[in-house]
């Protein structure tokens, strides 16, 4: 197959995702959830699920619907499933949050909110997994980066399944009452599969192809990424299978997680070595902002891994887990997603606007849709704010943490404006901006 | 090929420079995407490639090539073939564009 089509709802997915991110940031700045409240309390669960499902998963799903077909040179299995998936994910999360708010005493809602929200989310993720899974299935044998995505899809199934079970326990149903200890022991598996398997492992895999493409670095060596993938699936298999076994036997969970962490560190080290190799072999010396910021995000991930190892060695991991999770969710994943949106949004906008008139009239470049110098300051603020917020959590300075997240929020607003400017072609100089035959894009949906 | 045909091929190549790779920001002729242009009694045959097989811009590039070539006087019909054999390599980029993309001299 030659070429893939534009995914109509990609921009809609990104817009919904950014709205959730801003909401999460505002809630944190307002002092809602951790560290003002318990790390496993309902208020913290509200913020955590807005970030991981509303923001990160929604953005990742939108990007994967566009990018998996590029990765495997096959059309998306069913584009018609993508809008229902977005609706289910958004609705499911909203109901789930209402359930958490009820649990925290902020709402007087019925107890079925949590299981219903979880069911809607499971249905949404099932549509995503089936769609991307069938697309990958049609392209076997899978290229390296696609294997990471396939593993990520398996992990979101695990995450969602555990989430569904938790909702039965938390809402006090008779079925949930049969597993009173599930929450205590199952949360690490739920978090490991979600943050580690679904979000991080998928992002690592996609990074191989994206970095190679943007840096013009050779990535045809079949060995590229193999060690990172093997160590990663070992970590996930040990963590998930071992975790479930430990849960069943009621013992050995810590040892299992330690073994999984060791394999995960090896995976990250191999990934870091691969990215460094791509960087050194790149033909394009002058890197664009999105690539540079992706590398900064990766540095946050490496820092989080090194800090984790140090805290485990010092025996203080449990008391710092909130700070580490924040660094992974913001410094690494949010930074990486924002950096890539800074390329994907103008690229899709370019294709939609100028693709149909190419060859008939001169067209601008994708780079003409953005102003890197202006956006750089928002990225600097974003990463500085994320690192400062992590530091504030490490030293137990709750107010400092909220102030630092206020800076992150400001940076997010600034970058959101940059994305809107790209959609509006605001930085494209005349007369190239809207040549004859070109139609201006809509803000929130592509014309396809 | 006659001198007229050679002239027409040169004019087609020149016309194809209106088509750019949006990501790399340079025209596809200087990027080395155009593998072959031939003319056969007013029918232009163009063989081209793109950076990667699944590239969402590939179909637009192909269409853009057909559009721009068909605007060249003397061209009656245009036939564009997209191939990934051989796969495109950065070494196919012209020296001038290489330097503007920031290629190191060793490359």
Automatic annotation (TrEMBL), chain A:
The organism's place on the tree of life at top rank: Bacteria
Key words of the record: Membrane, Transmembrane, Transmembrane helix
Residue ranges crossing the lipid bilayer per the database entry: 12-34, 46-73, 85-106, 112-136, 148-170, 182-206, 227-248, 254-272, 293-315, 321-342, 375-393
UniProt xrefs under SUPFAM superfamilies: Cytochrome c oxidase subunit I-like
Cross-referenced InterPro entries: Cyt_c_oxase-like_su1_sf (IPR036927)
Protein's name in the database: Uncharacterized protein
TrEMBL record, chain B:
Boundaries of every MIP18 family-like domain copy: 10-80
Listed Gene3D superfamilies: Fe-S cluster assembly (FSCA) (3.30.300.130)
Domain of life: Bacteria
PANTHER family: FE-S PROTEIN MATURATION AUXILIARY FACTOR YITW (PTHR42831)
Name this protein carries in UniProt: Aromatic ring hydroxylase
Organism: Bradyrhizobium nitroreducens
